[in-house]
Each structure stands twice: as structure tokens, then as C-alpha cells.
Amino acid sequence: MNDQIVELHSPGLQIILYSPLALRELERGGHYATHFPDGRDLVDYMNDCRLCALGTRWPTSDHWLHLSSTMDHGVIARASDHVRLGIEVTSGLLCVRSGDDLFDWPGPCADEQLVSLDNGPYAVTACMLPYGGEGPVRIYLHFAQTPARPDLGYDTVPELYCEEPVF
User: Fold this and answer.
1) Judging by DSSP bridges, how do beta strands 93-98 and 14-18 pair with one another?
2) What is the pTM of this model?
3) Which residues contact 78 (CB under 8 A, 6 or more apart)?
4) Which of residues 43 and 76 earns the better pLDDT score?
5) What is the largest CA-CA distance in the chain?
6) Which is nearest to 10 in space by CA: 126, 112, 80, 101?
7) Is 112 a member of any domain?
8) Domain assignment present for 167
9) Do the domain assignments include residue 160?
């Protein structure tokens, strides 16, 4: 995986990442914020590594997501918070989009929100740098390929915290 940056404008309270094949049953215009077609919810899909979801505290700010397979220890040292996630990549692609899209599914992912990644399971570490209200929120996502899907046990979508939000 080459380092890639995806910019999201006002993503809402969550950001989701998934392989397009993992959510191929979702229909344009569908409402999936509470349940997917099989009756399971976002946290179930997260724990199964069908998608990654993380909460943000600045829903109307722009976000820059830096995706990399190389761990940047400088980012870790400066990070105000981090969460551990997991994802199963299929078809060599990962889509990054607003969690608000689950309220009215827009269909296929825009090209600028697609990231190339080898197929397989990954442990994902999401780190957030301190945010003071100026410029975009910066989130770094490190992808480490693993022999099996990470064992996650979330009961809610994890949220990245740092300083209090500036409104």
C-alpha cells in the first residue's frame, strides 16, 4: 500500500471504511443507520471486520485521513488519541466515506474516496493529532496485514477524542 490521503468534507459524527464487495447488498437510497439488510447493526459489522467505523467530534469540519502501511512513530508520539480496528479487504479496494451516508445510501464510492490495498485481514490503528479548530482534522490510519481478522469486542462505535471541540 502506498500512502494515500482521502479528504472528507463535513463527514458527520462517524467515518466508515469498507471494501465495496463487503457491502454490495446495500441499495441506493436505503436507510442503514440502524440495521443492515440482514438485521445486524453497524457494531456487529465492525466486530466482524466487514467495515471500520470511528466516531468524530467535529462533524462539520473537513477531515484528512492519511492511510499507510508504514507506522509513523512521530505521529504516534504526537497523537492525542487512538483506537484499534480491523478490516477484511476484498477486491483490492477500500472505500472511505461519511457515516452519514448510512442514512441515505448514495451507491458506489467516488473514485477519490477509494484506496488500493492488498486483499486480506488487517489490524488498523487510527490516531488523531490534537485539533484546535483551525484547518482540517487529521486522522492517521495504519494498516498492518494479519493472518486472521482481529478479535474486536466493541459494544459501541469507538470515538477519537482530543481537545474539546471548537464550535
Assistant:
1) antiparallel
2) 0.88
3) 129, 130
4) 43
5) 43
6) 101
7) yes
8) no
9) no
Rounded to whole angstroms, the Cα distance separating 115 from 8 reads 13
Residue that is written with C-alpha cell 457515516 in the block: 99
Domain range spanning residue 61? 4-145
Bigger pLDDT: 76 or 21?
A: 21
Give me the torsion for CA of 99, 110, 25, 20, rounded to 10°: -90
Indicate which CATH number applies to the domain containing 127. 2.60.34.30
Total domains in the chain come to 1
Residue 10, all three cell numbers: 463535513
Q: What is the dihedral of CA 7, 10, 12, 15, to 10 degrees?
A: 0
Q: What DSSP state is assigned to residue 97?
A: E
Q: Which residue has the cell 477484511?
A: 88
Q: Considering the domain boundaries, does residue 72 fall inside one?
A: yes
Give me the numbers of helices (H) and strands (E) for the chain, helices first please: 2, 9
For the chain, the residue count is 167
Radius of gyration of the chain (CA): 15
**What nine digits make up the cell of 65?**
485521513
